[in-house]
Amino acid sequence: MNRRQRKKRQMSVRSAVQASPAAPERVNISADALLVMRTSTKAVDSRESLFRPYEPLKGVLPANTSGKSLAMDADFDYSTITNLSALQKINDIFAQGYAFPGFSVLAEWAQIPEFRRPSETYAREVTRKWIKIQATGEEDKSQKIKALEAEFERLNVQEVLREAIEQDGFFGRSQIYLDLGTSLSGPEASELRTELALSPAKIAKGSLKRLKTIEPIWSYPNQYNANNPLDPTFYKPTSWFVMGQEIHSSRLLTIVSREMPDVLKPAYAFAGLSLSQMMKPYVENWLRTRQSVSDLIHSFTVWTLKTDMNAFLNKGGAAEFFTRLQLFNLGRDNHGVNAINKESEEFDNTSAPLGSLDKLQAQAQEQQCAPSGLPLVYLTGITPAGLNASSQGEIEVFQDTVSANQKIYSPTITCILKVAQLSLFGEIDPGITFTWNPLKVVTKVEEATIRKTNAETDQIHVDMGVLLPEEVRTRIAGEEDSPYAALDLNVELPEPMMAHAAPGPNEQGLDPEEEQPQAGVGTAQSGGERDSDISSLSLNGAQVSSLLEVIEQVASGSITLESGIAIITTSFPIAVEGARKMFAGAKPVNETRRDGTSSAH
After folding, report:
1. Which has the closest alpha carbon to 319: 38, 34, 39, 40?
2. Are residues 454 and 541 in the same domain?
3. pLDDT tens across 540-579, in order?
4. What is the pTM of this model?
5. Phi, psi of 178 (to 5 degrees)
6. How far is the CA of 3 from the CAs of 10, 15, 90, in angstroms?
7. Of the candidates 423, 439, 455, which is a domain's last residue?
8. 292 and 309 part of one domain
9. Are 178 and 151 a contacting pair, CB within 8 Å?
């Protein structure tokens, strides 16, 4: 084969080989088409320092004064916390509630029900039963107590303290200003910078005008010690700036329920940890879960379009394809129509299960009770479901917690009580104090049970000679909220029948040695007549059985006649004369046992 032939053969082979198909164009999705389906967010890297002192609003401090220059607390800057492994990301610090968000942000959170309701509920429960002003000693101080109660009503102390505790939950701090009539401007304004001593020299009669709560956003600490932990003013401000006006701390009663560590106090403007900040992660989880459940219920069906994606996405068709999908979403209801190519497309849907969404949502909601300490029935008004389900145990635990926390606010009320005494009487009576009323409410049934138990105890003491009937009568007449408050204490009472006393004439006037008829046989009142009297009363079966049991105990000698009368008149709507009539002729009945001995029953 010569050269010409080889060349000709090579050309024929090349022509026989088919050209390889051209590669399809790459799918190109434009940014505009992507934004149609989803909008991305960019995280902001905050460089705020965890320890940097809080900078108040303009006007809170006097002119040319900066809060950052106080006590060199600005030395704790961002470089200090970069070495802490748990606090590497500043965004996470603020998101999890590890840094002070500022009073403006906390005020915005107060608009959200999940943040607001716990603080409102807690403040209301603390002050709901309020206090009782009381006195000690033998001197009658009832008039002073009435005057102080009227003064507390005039000053609206209960509402002022409730508002202060509520603000403490929102912001972590609240203050009550004692307005003694001092002018806020002019020469008298300098008096506000001096300490308010609890003495007649500082607080004259009639000087206490009003009480005013101040939100922490309007005040800022002025002076405090930051270099000597042994100093009594160490991280305790001795004066405050209130919109440029310096006020001594003794004139501003500061309430902080959850104190912060000393190193963090400047960063929090000497406020404590607010309840809103504690609840932030839990509230955000709840809000996200609630919205996710709502979104899933709204669109629990996912529609699937099976089509040739290359035909739509090649050559810049992505925007048109996404527009078609958006058009379907806009018209996706019972009145919408979806048109597809029956030869090359298929339309299908996939539904998400909704069976356990209620449990997941309920658990996210219940988690909010953890930081607030509120039972679910207080936080949401939802009672537990199920047979014999009750929240009484959780309510009692919460009431015990509130009662313990009331001691946090006792110094504030004590100070107001002393200032009110100086304003009313010109002196402080150390024997006048106050106590918090118990939160637990005693029901009518429980009250009746307590009175019955006390009556039985008193009867035992009277029978033993420990107490006299007059003493018992005086005590029950003087009890608070007693149904016997109108008893006439001047009435002469009959001599009590002592258990150890010699027997006297019986109800029929017979001597003790004379033979007396047995109970129910030949008595002044037969069993049928007694049963008739009992049936005439409006008693149920259990009450009738209890009444007959008492009569049998008197007849058997287990208890005395007077004890039986006391039990009957206390436990049943029966007068004393009616009770005596029922017990007429009752006497221990002797029975002969099988062994020949006799016994009384």
Report:
1. 34
2. no
3. 545 556 677 777 778 777 788 888 888 777 777 777 777 7
4. 0.65
5. -90, 105
6. 11, 19, 80
7. 439
8. no
9. no
